[in-house]
């Protein structure tokens, strides 16, 4: 290891000499100095001094840029990313990836530019999925500019799945629409059918069954028979509020065999709200008395008064009859 460290230091000294000027050497030799730093970086990598290796790769990149060797400059940054992926924060890796891709594109190698964005996205996906999404989307942009629709669809597909995993459903719908566009341009009808199922599931997860039905109407003609049957059963269940039918459709073998993010999403989608039976009326203790109108109270009072009057008259008649009988007996 010490031998490799000594070799690395010698390469760095040689690089500094190439950058010096003199009376006979008016211009620094950027290209030779960059090569020396690249070799020093390799030696540091073997010696497991990854931080020094990264620094030498970045120095080499700067010198290559001064010499307008953009491909080599982009490659040097890519090497710096690879050797320091465990040491460098995701935000810095994101910036380095974008810079490397830009240099590749300046050289005219868009495929290499998209590829380095994909590499960096894979490295930071677990630690910073939001940044990974941006990198995959940029990679898709670069690929589409190179007329590589197939590769672009793969990059945007990764973006869609991460967004679903993060439950950022609005952005996931936009990403899936774009993915469908890539597949349509590539003429991949079967892929469009599968993506139709995916976008319907995401719309239902958003709680928008109307948008889910619109998506099916827009792209459903690309679906195969099992896909159509599953989606029609699912949408009909949500339209009718049939929880059991919706649950059965979401658990269909076809949906379970989709990418893991969409299969998991199906198990998280809220089921439709069915019609609940009307509860029976019950008497509540200490409830307020029922309302009775004033007219009803008046009529009730009238009946009560009439009844009292009749009872009083009857009682008076009875008394009169008894008095008359008593007088007859005396006579």
Write up what this structure looks like.
The protein has 16 helices and no strands. The protein has helices spanning 2-19, 30-46, 50-66, 70-83, 90-107, 110-124, 129-145, 149-165, 169-186, 189-205, 209-219, 225-240, 243-250, 253-256, 260-268, 294-330. Helix 7 (129-145) runs antiparallel to helix 8, helix 11 (209-219) packs antiparallel against helix 12 (225-240) and helix 12 (225-240) packs antiparallel against helix 13 (243-250). The longest helix has 37 residues, at 294-330. Mean pLDDT is 85; it is low at 275-293 and 327-331.
Summary of the model, kept short:
By secondary structure, this protein is mainly α. It is 76% helix and 0% strand.
Any descriptors?
331 residues
Spell out the helices and strands N to C.
HHHHHHHHHHHHHHHH
- pLDDT averaged residue by residue: 85
Shape: elongated
Tally of DSSP helical segments? 16
Class derived from helix and strand content: mainly alpha
How far is it from the N-terminal to the C-terminal residue, by CA?
155 Å
* Unreliable parts: 275-293, 327-331
- Radius of gyration equals 42 Å
Beta-strand residue percentage: under 5%
The helix content, as a percent range, equals over 70%
Largest sheet: none
Number of beta strands: 0
